[in-house]
């Protein structure tokens, strides 16, 4: 069957010991899913094509993956590239490359549940709708959660704004303080060049019910085979009141933003070329 | 416990759930049922007053007996009934029961609401807590009486601190003889599903709901609680377990199609019910769980298969 084939393919690329390394990492019921609809079997099959892209198309280099602590953690990354390849690559790295592999849960837009097939796919690979309640509940279950605090503003940037961090939301910091969760900053290098958007057709987006409609010189934002580099930073710990004034939270968020900014600058300096 | 048996009024006792509650309760308590329908298979020691809840005669039951507790389940869920009847029966009936409870010194009121009062929506968190606003009517106006009834009990809870009021919001109740929308839907051999949508669902066995209602009678319990069953499963797994073959329809087509069929009485589901097989409407049952040590008796497999009468 297709599912079995994909799963074998994943294991052949990731190493056959992946199954053992994942053993016991997920409470599932007799129907193979956790209460959130995540299925490890489904994920191992679904991750195949993405792992192929990771290894052969984007040829991802990952630095500092071992810095991600066990237990609850918030992974905070810059967002780019029109299509969320950055999220997928971070997910693949965590699920197949880490010594103690684990699925990441990311917070998806509220229009995702209205999309057929995509909604089901996202749920089975562990993604949930981005509400504070969902995030809090998952952190309390010691999950790893990926957040792009720039949101749509980050991923839909046009080419001239590449690697300029947009405004960070404060929600992740509030949740980190509330649940006592360490934050691992991540800099993603390469995503900005995968689909250089020159224009965002807002009226067309509105017509189709999409949040944005970016176009590249070659039309649709198809990702080019750029080389991805993922830099994981040291975990950051914050203390304070989660219901503090926004200005206090902003100070803490700035620390995270600065850490990502520094890693981006270093990463860009070290990089010799965009495509290799 | 004292030597005198507590007196418990159970409204809606002739329904399937009502009969389960009567069976669980009649050995420990004097059960007086109120239901306008006949009570088939009534245990000998259970009294049945066949009267419409809205009628003055309901008062008489309370006046004549020293009632200790009320379990209120006399609420209609049939979308085929006229809106007016539905609304009047549910809202006026509930008001009558609550009035009686306050007037005749009842110490405990347990009301059956439903997790459906939150309503399915693409914006929902996966597990809604009791504090979530009751938004079901925003997409499905027909259910507003069920929300109103829940709110009535909620208001009653605050206005009468001397009475222990418990509102239970169980997830989809399923069972062999149960004729509610989820059970009927799960019994279909070729049910419609929406192509590409496979939401997680929560089910609970009738008997477990009955047990929860009894548990709520325990002195000291009060408040609003979500009640969950044995867990969560994708809708597709439920049909696989039952051996039914779902018929996937594009969601953009299904709604207008079902609207038309419902209008001409060719379908028994109003089109808004499709939201339940497209989006999440799951609840967080941890409060009830933590405070009562709740454990459903029936496993997920048993709960699913119970719709077939197994």
Describe this structure in words.
The complex is a heterodimer of chains A (276) and B (310). Chain A has 276 residues and is an alpha/beta fold. Chain A has eleven helices and nine strands. Chain A has helices at 2-14, 18-22, 40-57, 85-97, 118-124, 132-140, 151-155, 171-179, 191-194, 202-208, 246-270, and strands at 61-63, 73-77, 104-108, 128-129, 144-147, 183-189, 199-200, 214-215, 229-232. In chain A, strand 3 (104-108), helix 5 (118-124) and strand 4 form a beta-alpha-beta unit. With 310 residues, chain B is an alpha/beta fold. Chain B has a domain at 7-180 and 203-229 and 283-297: NAD(P)-binding Rossmann-like Domain (Rossmann fold, 3-Layer(aba) Sandwich), CATH 3.40.50.720. Helices cover 36% and strands 17% of the residues of chain B. Chain B is built from eleven helices and twelve strands. In chain B, strand 4 (69-72), helix 3 (83-103) and strand 5 form a beta-alpha-beta unit. The two termini of chain B are 36 Å apart. In chain B, 47% of the residues are buried. The chains are: A alpha/beta (276), B alpha/beta (310). At the A-B interface, helix 5, strand 4 and helix 6 of A face strand 11 of B.
Ordered list of secondary-structure elements with their pairings:
The complex is a heterodimer of chains A (276) and B (310).
Chain A: H1 2-14, H2 18-22, H3 40-57, E1 61-63, E2 73-77, H4 85-97, E3 104-108, H5 118-124, E4 128-129, H6 132-140, E5 144-147, H7 151-155, H8 171-179, E6 183-189, H9 191-194, E7 199-200, H10 202-208, E8 214-215, E9 229-232, H11 246-270
Chain B: E1 7-11, H1 16-25, E2 30-34, E3 47-49, H2 57-64, E4 69-72, H3 83-103, E5 108-112, H4 136-139, H5 144-159, E6 164-170, E7 172-174, H6 181-187, E8 192-194, E9 200-205, H7 206-217, E10 223-227, E11 232-234, H8 235-242, E12 247-249, H9 251-263, H10 286-292, H11 300-305
Parallel strand pairs in B: 1-2, 1-4, 2-3, 4-5, 5-6, 6-10, 7-9, 8-12
Antiparallel strand pairs in B: 9-11
Helix pairs in contact in B: 1-7, 3-5
């Amino acid at each position: 069957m297709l599912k079995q084939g994909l799963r074998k393919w994943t294991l052949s690329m990731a190493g056959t010991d992946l199954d053992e390394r994942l053993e016991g990492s997920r409470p599932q019921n007799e129907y193979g899913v956790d209460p959130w609809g995540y299925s490890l079997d489904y994920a191992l099959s679904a991750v195949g094509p993405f792992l192929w892209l990771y290894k052969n198309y984007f040829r991802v280099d990952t630095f500092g993956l071992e810095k991600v602590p066990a237990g609850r953690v918030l992974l905070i990354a810059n967002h780019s590239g029109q299509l969320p390849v950055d999220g997928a690559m971070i997910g693949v790295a965590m699920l197949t490359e880490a010594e103690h592999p684990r699925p990441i849960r990311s917070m998806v837009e509220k229009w995702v549940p209205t999309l057929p097939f995509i909604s089901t796919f996202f749920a089975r690979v562990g993604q949930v709708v981005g509400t504070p309640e969902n995030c809090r509940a998952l952190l309390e279950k010691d999950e790893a959660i990926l957040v792009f605090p720039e949101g749509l503003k980050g991923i839909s940037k046009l080419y001239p704004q590449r690697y300029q961090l947009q405004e960070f939301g404060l929600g992740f910091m509030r949740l980190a303080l509330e649940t006592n969760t360490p934050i691992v900053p991540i800099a993603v290098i390469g995503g900005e060049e995968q689909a250089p958007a020159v224009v965002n057709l807002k009226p067309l987006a509105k017509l189709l019910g999409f949040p944005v409609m970016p176009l590249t010189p070659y039309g649709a934002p198809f990702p080019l085979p750029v080389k991805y580099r993922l830099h994981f930073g040291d975990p950051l710990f914050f203390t304070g009141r989660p219901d503090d004034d926004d200005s206090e939270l902003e100070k803490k968020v700035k620390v995270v933003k600065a850490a990502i900014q520094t890693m981006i600058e270093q990463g860009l300096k070290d990089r010799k070329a965009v495509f290799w | 416990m004292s030597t005198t048996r507590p007196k418990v009024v159970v409204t809606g006792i002739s329904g399937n759930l009502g009969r389960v509650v009567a069976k669980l309760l009649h050995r420990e308590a004097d059960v007086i049922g109120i239901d306008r329908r006949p009570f088939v298979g009534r245990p000998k020691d259970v009294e049945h007053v066949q009267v419409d809840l809205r009628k003055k005669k309901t008062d008489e039951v309370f006046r004549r007996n020293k009632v200790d507790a009320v379990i209120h389940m006399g609420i209609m869920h049939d979308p085929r009934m006229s809106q007016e009847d539905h609304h009047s029966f549910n809202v006026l009936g509930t008001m009558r029961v609550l009035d009686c409870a306050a007037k005749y010194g009842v110490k405990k009121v347990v009301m059956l609401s439903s997790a459906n009062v939150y309503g399915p929506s693409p914006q929902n968190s996966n597990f809604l807590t009791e504090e979530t606003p009751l938004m079901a009517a925003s997409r499905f106006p027909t259910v507003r009486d069920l929300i109103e009834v829940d709110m009535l009990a909620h208001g009653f809870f605050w206005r009468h601190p001397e009475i222990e009021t418990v509102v239970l919001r169980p997830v989809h109740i399923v069972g062999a003889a149960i004729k509610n929308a989820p059970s009927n839907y799960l019994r279909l051999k070729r049910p419609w599903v929406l192509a590409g949508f496979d939401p997680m669902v929560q089910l609970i066995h009738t008997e477990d709901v009955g047990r929860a209602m009894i548990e709520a009678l325990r002195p000291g319990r009060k408040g609003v609680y979500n009640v969950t069953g044995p867990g969560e499963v994708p809708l597709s797994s439920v049909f696989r377990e039952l051996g039914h073959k779902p018929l996937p329809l594009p969601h953009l087509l299904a709604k207008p199609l079902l609207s038309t069929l419902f209008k001409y009485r060719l379908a028994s589901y109003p089109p808004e019910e499709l939201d339940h097989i497209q989006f999440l409407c799951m609840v967080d049952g941890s409060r009830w769980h933590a405070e009562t040590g709740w454990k459903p008796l029936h496993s997920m497999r048993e709960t699913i298969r119970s719709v077939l009468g197994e």
